[in-house]
């Protein structure tokens, strides 16, 4: 419980006056809440002693109403401030989590499933909100209210009766603490099962068309049912443990009432306390039911919140593989690979080995090779997606380790194989590359990417919604929107990673010719399976198993009799792809 509060000490420190006010007003409310019981006890004694008068009765009624109004006002103030703080904590942690998601390198997402990350951003954050709202409410209110009632019972009625009536409480605290630890462990297992189920939902929704085409609906439904049952069992384990709190509290309070009535009668017969004192004492004891139950709920909510915050902190404490040690800017797009070798963090083999070549600013590099030969891995080195490998990679005369990551990426226009589009309009997807672009720059990017013809056939043109992940578009249209998004930046280095695979030969030629005309002084890198897309390149690198096996222009490579020449002969005789 206190571990959870310690983890959030940064927020409580920043808002110390707010929480000081909450505690102060809450203590006032607690004192006000015990007054009605005193009034009831005194009223009974006044009636029993024949001292009740009409004036005294109205005084008691007025005091009772005033206390009720003041209690309501104080409770409203502290509860509003408390739950407002809980929402703000949730919002701050959610923003920190989102900021972390945006900054972490791809290797982090290779180690963590999307469903688990979504569970942390939803279910776990809700648990933290509950702990900082309901949890703090029960911690401060229950403990202070319980202490206030006990003190009033002891000092105004009888400390002997109070002592005997509260003897079962330590047993309740011990059992609830042990239950809380079990709930913490069970909640972690439940959240992990929810993450697995969440990830499965994403896979099923994204692959629904593939599932239907292979008639695997029943198999997928059964697989998901198994995950749902597993989550339900683990969730119900938490609920079963949670359900033990209420009956345990009822049993303890029942024993307390038995002691209060029995020993209270003895004290009344001895003349130590009055009948009104017994009634008031039992009212107080009845008021203790809520804080005693709340203590049990406190362990439950706090343990869940602590388990969830631990899972969230695992993400927030994750160090990015690519450090922000670079502080130099890039002004020139020339690059030099000097025996560069690289291995993915989770890979068991070297993915790039001894890559050596030089590309001058303004030149075009073509990268070809078999599937899985390391083409995409090579261009990703320029984006600083992963830690630097061995050997050297120099851009603009500076080691890539010296270049600022953000500044470097701002100079690069990258079109990946995935062609990720947002569920927005075509215009918004293109302007994502440069939100400040003018209408003329937008039209130029559309023309260069050969998207203008397709726009005329779209129902709302540039304002057409593309659907989630571009589901409403063809593969070629998605690729051209991605290319336009990159071209609108007018980058110093343009990287097309197999970005023309879904367009026809005529459209490909139009795009390539447009890029050649408009980017004569800027560097372009084209990764492709089509030799026609790189025949004009100043330099072509052929990769195989992470190594450069051939290097040269289209003319020189076509005459060597190597892999490139064989593929070119195949292309000239009617084949289109490698």
TrEMBL record:
A Pfam family it matches: ABC_tran
Major subcellular site: membrane
PROSITE patterns in UniProt: ABC_TM1F, ABC_TRANSPORTER_1, ABC_TRANSPORTER_2
Domain ABC transporter residues, every copy: 335-570
Localization (cell): Cell membrane
Gene3D superfamilies with a match to the protein in the record: ABC transporter type 1, transmembrane domain, P-loop containing nucleotide triphosphate hydrolases
Transmembrane intervals: 21-40, 60-83, 128-151, 157-175, 243-266, 278-301
GO molecular function, one term: ABC-type oligopeptide transporter activity
InterPro entries reported in the protein's UniProt record: AAA+_ATPase (IPR003593), ABC1_TM_dom (IPR011527), ABC1_TM_sf (IPR036640), ABC_transporter-like_ATP-bd (IPR003439), ABC_transporter-like_CS (IPR017871), P-loop_NTPase (IPR027417), Type_1_exporter (IPR039421)
Keyword terms, alphabetized: ATP-binding, Cell membrane, Membrane, Nucleotide-binding, Transmembrane, Transmembrane helix, Transport
Residues covered by the ABC transmembrane type-1 domain: 22-304
Entry keyword annotation includes Transmembrane: yes
Membrane topology: Multi-pass membrane protein
Keyword Cell membrane among record annotations: yes
Family annotation (SUPFAM superfamilies): ABC transporter transmembrane region, P-loop containing nucleoside triphosphate hydrolases
CDD domains the record matches: ABC_6TM_TmrB_like
Any GO CC annotation of this UniProt entry: plasma membrane
Function, as annotated: May be involved in multidrug export. Transmembrane domains (TMD) form a pore in the cell membrane and the ATP-binding domain (NBD) is responsible for energy generation.
Protein name: ABC transporter ATP-binding protein
Organism: Salinicoccus cyprini
